[in-house]
Design a protein that fits this description.
The structure is a homodimer of 224-residue chains. Chain A is an alpha+beta fold. The first copy, chain A, is built from ten helices and eleven strands. In chain A, strands 1-3-2 form a three-stranded antiparallel sheet. In chain A, helix 2 crosses helix 3 and helix 3 packs across helix 4. The longest helix of chain A is centred in the middle third of the chain and has 16 residues. The radius of gyration of chain A is 19 Å and the shape is elongated. In chain A, 38% of the residues are buried. Chain A binds a DNA duplex (30 and 30 nucleotides) through helix 4.
DNA sequence: GTGATGCTTCGGTCTGGAGCGAAGTGTCTG
DNA sequence: CAGACACTTCGCTCCAGACCGAAGCATCAC
């Protein structure tokens, strides 16, 4: 007996892990690019692109083209409401994420979040820089203190001052409680980490794999 | 990869056509056997049995064994709320099932939503009660005004004060724009409707079929 | 112009899981 | 007890779709 609207199509769209991760990321209300969403979902750009087409056709998200970027946002508030309701139900049913594997442990320790460092190490760095007064401010408006700027320059970290994107930003971390550092500074520090050879980036993952010496050097350099 | 509850598991459970048909059937609020649900979904008993195990493990439905029968019902009202919200979204996105027949019209007019009245009539009742000040509050926190409580008692509507579930709740309606009344009061009013003989309930549907006199009495009683 | 970047499309592989037949478990009737 | 009935479990097939490499567009920077 088929009555009423077809739940299954919509639920099936939300029901794929990659897509639900993208939708969850879009719950922030911000518009995100395909690349950012791919990174959020932990899949390659081609895969994400396919998912985004399906979500768009299903009416769950909307696309805005700006130059070579495609920005995506939730289609409307009703979509957000349904996602919120699903989150509530999932929480009530104890379906918290508990996946644990070797891959997962590495991801939780240190990973790339778009273009900056996330995970336990990213959160520790962020907390350390704030405790020492290198970073100031709360929430979205974080700034580099003058002493901090000098310190970064002394380390040879270049901030690409041409870009108009925010210099410092905090980004919520899912694996560790707290935030990590995003923005141009976050990007520059991650780049520095790779050029110094402290860590490598295994193919097709978000994992940032520090060497033992590399992690020690990283902690010492940023003094946390 | 974001923090928070895992939407995907729950949504994936709902996202299969067979399972969503079963859940939709259970939205009637009645307990159904595995065999009945299999025929609702259009699959063999073995297949349905597998789905029911998964839905049970996911916390969406509950099982009661009675002799050689297994009866299933939705786990709780929250599940029903989420399903109703999904129906609303699906309807808004034009994912209606192609069949639009007399049945569909009846469903839109008046139907059961878990244990309370939904459809045009349910929304009209809700709007009427609010306009007259019987119900107060916005969003999730809706309450029965003192005058309203007296009015309901005068009508002989019993509120089962033992239950700890909320007395009044609003529930989004998918067929009409607006909300209808859920919670203990919503349940009591629907029970009253049947005991008064204003409406009957055709087998195997969510339809609530009012008689002409019954609908008039219903509207007059609740004064809308 | 050339090269870099962001995204899409195409073609291919591979796995999760939906489906069913058959056999097994539990419950009722006579 | 045997046999009917309701449901579950097992074993198997099969396919949708998730994923990625490579190639193709479009846009930007120089």
């Amino acid at each position: 007996m088929k009555e009423g609207p077809d739940i299954a199509r919509i639920a099936n769209l939300i029901g794929d892990p990659s897509r639900s991760n993208m939708l969850t990321a879009l719950m922030s209300g911000k518009a995100l690019t395909a690349g950012e969403l791919a990174s959020e979902a932990g899949v390659q750009l081609q895969t994400a692109s396919g998912h985004l087409v399906r979500l768009e056709e299903g009416g769950l998200i909307k696309r805005e083209r700006q130059g070579r970027h495609h920005y995506f946002r939730l289609a409307d508030a009703e979509v957000a409401t349904v996602l919120e309701a699903l989150m509530g139900l999932a929480a009530a049913k104890g379906q918290l994420r508990t996946r644990t594997g070797p891959r997962d442990l590495e991801l939780r320790h240190a990973r790339v979040c778009y273009n900056h460092l996330a995970g336990e190490l990213g959160v520790a760095l962020y907390d350390g820089l704030r405790a020492r007064g290198v970073l100031r401010g709360e929430g979205d408006s974080i700034a580099l203190a003058d002493t901090g700027r000098a310190e970064m320059e002394a380390l040879g970290i270049e901030l690409n001052t041409k870009s108009r994107s925010p210099e410092c930003k905090s980004c919520l971390d899912w694996s560790a409680r707290g935030s990590h550092l995003a923005g141009r500074l976050g990007r520059a520090i991650l780049d520095h980490t790779f050029t110094q050879g402290w860590a490598i980036r295994p193919e097709n993952t978000r994992i940032v794999r520090f060497t033992a010496l590399g992690e020690a050097a990283f902690r010492k350099t940023f003094n946390f």
